[in-house]
Write a structure and sequence with these properties.
The chain has about 210 residues and is α/β, with parallel strands linked by helices. The chain has two domains: about 1-135, Rossmann fold (3-Layer(aba) Sandwich); about 140-210, Winged helix-like DNA-binding domain superfamily/Winged helix DNA-binding domain (Arc Repressor Mutant, subunit A). The chain is about 50% helix and about 10% strand. It has helices at about 10-20, 35-40, 60-70, 85-95, 110-120, 125-140, 155-165, 170-175, 180-195, 200-210; strands spanning about 1-5, 25-35, 50-55, 80, 100-105. Strands 2-1-3-4-5 form a five-stranded parallel beta sheet, sandwiched between helices. Strand 1 (about 1-5), helix 1 and strand 2 form a beta-alpha-beta unit. The longest helix has 15 residues, at about 180-195.
Length: about 210
């Protein structure tokens, strides 16, 4: 059972997400909030495998909420679900610690698949969003090809490229014809070399420094 927590201020959208999640086998909405402050007050009493987070919220923004969650625990898996697809917001959310980034017009089946991917260790983003992230860095040249001294093996670069594209561990394993455990082994090494602790941090650093 994948336990999902929702942070969404639009009551119609929030109710729709609750109905979708609770009406799907092996998914359940454990709680929903219209703003971050109350969610943060209660988060340690809640069982949530994946947190669906809007960005434009009353009071604290979703991006600030992500940062606060990561201060509490690096283990929270947060999936942004928003109407905004501006490059800077996407990057800010990933740098804050989001595991994936989706637009609210994402079809229900794709949203459920993304929740499962995030739960299983993936970093779900549509190809459109992933392209915008890459374009942002190519346009702004933010430290691209900087003096960062990271020596990734060819296989580690292949695994990291899969993560940047939003693939789950299983999808990467299938594509490279290796086991999921081998993928996890490579990610542990990648995290050590990049000095990061999450998929989103690895994606942000990989694109920022032109590692893939």
């Amino acid at each position: 059972m994948v336990n999902v927590l929702i942070v969404e201020d639009n009551p119609t959208i929030k109710e729709g997400l609750e109905i979708l999640i609770n009406g799907t086998e092996d998914y359940q909405c454990t709680a929903s909030y219209s703003e971050c402050e109350t969610m943060l007050e209660n988060i340690q009493d809640l069982s949530a495998h994946v947190i669906l987070m809007d960005i434009d919220l009353p009071g604290m923004s979703g991006i600030e909420g992500i940062k606060k969650l990561k201060e509490i625990s690096k283990d929270y898996t947060i999936l942004v679900l928003t109407v905004y697809d501006e490059n800077e917001l996407i990057f800010d959310a990933l740098c804050a610690g989001a595991s994936g980034y989706l637009i609210k017009k994402t079809p229900p089946a794709k949203l459920l698949e993304a929740i499962k991917d995030a739960y299983e260790g993936g970093a779900p983003m549509t190809s459109h969003i992933a392209r915008k992230v890459v374009d942002y860095f190519q346009t702004n040249q933010v430290e691209k090809k900087s003096n960062i001294d990271v020596h990734l093996t060819p296989r580690e670069k292949e695994v990291l490229s899969g993560l940047v594209e939003g693939s789950s561990y299983k999808a990467i394993a299938d594509y490279l014809n290796i086991s999921v455990e081998t993928v996890r082994f490579h990610f542990r090494n990648i995290y050590k070399k990049l000095h990061v602790h999450s998929q989103s941090e690895a994606v942000a650093k990989a694109i920022k420094h032109g590692l893939v």
